[in-house]
Amino acid sequence: MKEKLMRVATGFVLDKTLRYIDKDPQKNIIRIIDIAEKFAGKMFPAKTFPAFRAAVSDKDNVWFKYVMSILNETDRENLKKMFLSFVLGAGYYGTKAVRANREKYKCNIPFVMLLDPTSACNLKCKGCWSAEYGHKQNLTYDEMNSVVNQGVELGTHLYMFTGGEPLIRKDDVLRLCREHENCTFLAYTNATLIDQKFCEDMKSVGNLTLALSIEGDRESNDFRRGDNAYDKTVAAMDLLHKNGCLFGVSICYTSKNVDSVTSDEFIDFLIGKGAKFALYFNYMPVGANAVEELIPNPEQRTHMYKWLRKMRNSNTGKPIFVMDFQDDGEYVGGCIAGGRNYFHINSAGDIEPCVFIHFSDSNIRTHTLLEALQNPLFMCYYHNQPFNENHLRPCPMLENPEYLRKMIELTGAKSTDLVDRESVEHLCAKCDKFAAEWKPQADKLWAENKHPNPKTQYYRDSEQAKTEKPKDIVK
């Protein structure tokens, strides 16, 4: 009841705030920053509000342009509902509950959960681990609803749909959004099932956003995703933009497309189409048909690291938010899998530590989420994170394969690939070469640059760690 009252009150204030900003955006945003600093200044680093004020004071500042593009191009009711679910639900209520429950249950509690409504997909992209899964597995609506209900009890208010193609189950996705208005949902989609009605439904629920898969220009995109995939994605972008829907893109970067997906032409194209964020993923050699040669080489990873920081600079960047789950490890304290910040549930109900690591010792049909988080595999993650003090080498598979080998051996977790069971040795062997080649370059980058100090809750720093010696610590 308290949350519902807060939501109503916040929505009322937000409506008035948006109308106030519209009268004189630059001047009135600065006034709002001044007010916010008086009430919440001590909750943030000292530089936070002066930095906001400086950005808004300069109309050429990238972040001022970015904020204005969101305000001018997004349906206002959609924007308000997204703010309420993401900032109030996930940010305010969720963060507090997640941190408290980590202390209470002595295990990882995630900020976000990924789940696959279905294994079915209407595309078959080269090297895609999802393509390995086949088309016969589905989570029921009740199972997905149970996951969200259990997650909210733990504090998790952010859910992402992967697959397969999640919009094959678009009716159930929309129903979940309606029934959980205090949560934010994102669907990774190939964009082929987006039509006018779906855009209208998106605006109606308000707490759903999309990440459309695209991998550079037409040639590099269709090389992996098939003929005409590029044109269909672009048509979906135009439709979403015209309807004022909030959306971004998902980009798997490989050794073949790094230059294309980081070019000025490509980024300008995305901005022109209305994309507000771009989520970059390093290609992972998962599955029987994985192409090891598609793993970006050390020089390409170095390019990504430097390009990301250039893109987010208020003077040298562009008005779109970009992030890379591999090269931005320093902002989240390394690996976030195993429930530390997220985990993945596949379409068979297997609870996996990572969307790219298909091993499990728990299933939603036999275990609660909390039981899975306290079972051996996830506790092994909990006891061993971070897997490297250099957070440019965060992953226990790609950059530190010796860790994944040992954790699977210690816990007895089984392969969950829905088509061809893959041994941990087969998977990690595809990563050994890159891990060895990336180490000296990553260590050099780490030594040469300053890094943020994210707030983390590692087991090793807890009072609990001072009095016990878990048997699953990997050395």
Overview of the molecule:
With 475 residues, the protein is of the alpha/beta class. 48% of the residues lie in helices and 10% in strands. Strand 2, helix 7 and strand 3 form a beta-alpha-beta unit.
Pick out its properties.
single chain, 475 residues, alpha/beta, two-stranded antiparallel ribbon, 19 helices, globular
DSSP strand tally: 11
Stretches where pLDDT is under 50 for at least 5 consecutive residues are none
The end-to-end span amounts to 48 Å
Average pLDDT works out at: 91
SSE succession: HHHHHEHEHEHEHHEHHEHEEEEHHHEHHH
Largest sheet: 9 strands, mixed
Helix content: 40-55%
Structural class: alpha/beta
Strand order of the largest sheet: 7-6-5-4-3-2-1-8-9
Q: Supply the number of helical segments.
A: 19
Rg, rounded, reads 22 Å
Tell me, briefly, the overall form.
globular
Report the sheet-strand fraction: 5-15%
Topology:
Layout: H1 2-23, H2 25-40, H3 48-57, H4 62-73, H5 76-105, E1 112-115, H6 141-154, E2 158-161, H7 170-179, E3 184-189, H8 196-205, E4 208-213, H9 218-225, H10 229-242, E5 247-253, H11 258-261, H12 264-273, E6 277-282, H13 298-311, E7 321-324, E8 342-345, E9 351-352, E10 359-360, H14 369-373, H15 376-384, H16 401-411, E11 414-415, H17 424-429, H18 432-448, H19 463-467
Parallel strand pairs: 1-2, 1-8, 2-3, 3-4, 4-5, 5-6, 6-7
Antiparallel strand pairs: 8-9, 10-11
Helix pairs in contact: 1-2, 1-5, 2-3, 7-8, 13-18, 15-16
Quick structural overview:
This protein is α/β, with parallel strands linked by helices and 475 residues long. The protein contains 19 helices and eleven strands. α13 links the parallel β6 (277-282) and β7.
